[in-house]
Amino acid sequence: MKRGFISSGMEFLLEAIGLSKKYGDVLALSDLSLNVSRGEIVGLLGPNGAGKTTAIHIFMGLLTPTHGSVSVLGFSPTTQRHKMAGQINFSSAYTQLPGNLKVIENLNIYAGIYNVSKVQEKIEWVLEIFSMHHLRTRLTGALSSGEKTRLNLCKCFLNEPKLVFLDEPTASLDPEMADVVRGVLKKINQEKDIGMIFTSHNMLEVEQMCDRIFFINEGKVLTAGTHDEIVNQYGCTALEDVFIKLVREKR
């Protein structure tokens, strides 16, 4: 069994086995095996260009893998994306929502796309938990970068997904608001039993948030496991030291 890869016969929200993706002669992802259980936060870490975005796009059905298999909520993202789409969601600090629409208008549109029931109740809930209620009538284009990040998080949880992909979800936030958002994400994770795949370059954040961690570089998994397993394996005291060591060794 690969380190960090749980194989106990249990049902996973997401399970990828031997996943690879090639672009011509470039191998962007190589033999990735990874799974996420209900209520679990799995960190997907690595330097820029490591293959994290490629993996997430395959999980979401936006890319087709060259080799391997992946199941999301029991469906194939490649052939059954329509069956899982309403039960997953994605947030990134770098995604832009239509700037000419008000915050509340954007959320209403996405509520319609996801066929959300009790729309106004759900919108009020996400605005409240991400401290956006006072900005509900603000034009999205007039928001600060941190406010846009929080709006993306509002959109992400609007449909009460079973699985979410969080790509550097606190990258544009100041330290105080980042701490608030991490607390909200942990609370949602525990109370709603949502699975999460979490990417970040903030290793202290990863230590705080993630139950298991997968380090990838040049498309390959270099190590995986819990925080304690990984730092002990490399004789380090902090995850950041492991990150630096793995990247420099690969170079």
Please give a structural write-up.
The protein has 251 residues and is an alpha/beta fold. It has a single domain, classed as Rossmann fold (3-Layer(aba) Sandwich), CATH 3.40.50.300. The protein contains 9 helices and 9 strands. The chain has helices at residues 52-59, 81-84, 103-113, 119-129, 145-157, 175-192, 203-209, 227-233, 239-250; strands at residues 14-23, 26-36, 41-45, 67-72, 88-92, 163-167, 195-199, 212-217, 220-225. It has a 6-stranded mixed sheet with strand order 5-6-7-3-8-9, with helices on both faces. The longest helix has 18 residues, at 175-192. The chain is globular, with a radius of gyration of 18 Å. The model has no long low-confidence stretch (mean pLDDT 92).
Topology summary:
Layout: E1 14-23, E2 26-36, E3 41-45, H1 52-59, E4 67-72, H2 81-84, E5 88-92, H3 103-113, H4 119-129, H5 145-157, E6 163-167, H6 175-192, E7 195-199, H7 203-209, E8 212-217, E9 220-225, H8 227-233, H9 239-250
Parallel strand pairs: 3-7, 3-8, 5-6, 6-7
Antiparallel strand pairs: 1-2, 1-4, 8-9
Helix pairs in contact: 4-5
